[in-house]
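Q: Got a minute? One more chain.
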Amino acid sequence: MRDLVSRIEAVTPPGRDRAVDALRAAAVLGVVLGHWLVTALVTDSGGLRGDSPLRHMPELVPFSWVFQTLAVFFLVGGMVAAKGHASARARGVPYGRWLGARLARLFGPVAAVLVVWTAATGAMLAAGAGTETVRTLCALVWSPLWFLLVFAALTAATPLVARVGPVWPFAVVLCVDLARFGLEAGPSWLGSINVAAGWLVPYCLGAAWARGARPGRPACWGLLLGGGAATAGLVLWAGYPAAMVGVPGAGVSNLAPPTLAAVCFGLAQCGAALLLLGPLRRAMRRPAVWTVVALANLSAMTVFLWHQTAMIAVTAVGLLADGPLPGLHTPPGGVGWVFARLLWLPVFAAALTVCLAAFGACERGRPERGEDERGAGKGKSGAVRHG
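A: Always. Here it is, folded:
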């Protein structure tokens, strides 16, 4: 272990901002734990159906505020993409090559998921699995891919985004929500505009950070407190859902598409993330801590793409037991389910480790020529680079 720590420390570029990697790792961890805690696969006469403890226990809604970390992901993504594009342009790397390298790293690991789950879907249908069960499982696996499509579109638009401040997309979200939820409700398709505009707000903040326009501490506190207060006001007095994730059966979701409440909440998260940069940089000076973060970033996309598969695999194997297993197949209707689900988390993590061993190589390919990152090193321990 000491040798691994030493090698990763040796191949890390001296000027690398390790706090950025720590924020990305925290964002991925939040998504994974959030999905594992609020997603239930309940057995009934028709097979498996999806459910959520948030639907039965509204008192758990505050946990969705902790684990919905997508805004931090877009903040970091905007910063890395904008800085990488500026660096590539300074070196004379064409836009097409820069974008192709980034999208190849983004979508390369997706191919394995598509192949495995296409085969699994066919096998389940051939074995007589109910269509509702197959639809539920596929939705869990495919649903994270919407994030990649939005992220890819914003990445492609980075040269334009770098010139746009977060105020403009925020204004678009505000206008769309006024049209959707105002006195005269607008058509539902208007919400699709927010899919890009909503996540463009933190992405623009990240791009501004890359240009050296990162907000100072007073502005960061303003984002944190102002965004939090605005979110609370929208929930308490404007009728927005309190949960920052989708809840089965709810009339409105804050994420599909992003609402003004989700965007304000994301601004609060961005403020908190920027305030944490100093403490994170100090923590990342410790080689052992940095090693954990570096290894997490090395497999971040694989973790993101396969964590739902890991949970599904454990659930499927559990069906071999004599009766439904608490916290795995039972309805999430009480505190007992929550404690039982917490006990399953290490099992989900073990299954995810198997997925990482099987498919991690799809993500750790050799960086493309003309890559845009701030630095890269490659040793026996693997590449240490920004994703």
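A: Residues 366-387 have pLDDT under 50 and may be disordered.
Q: Perfect, thanks.
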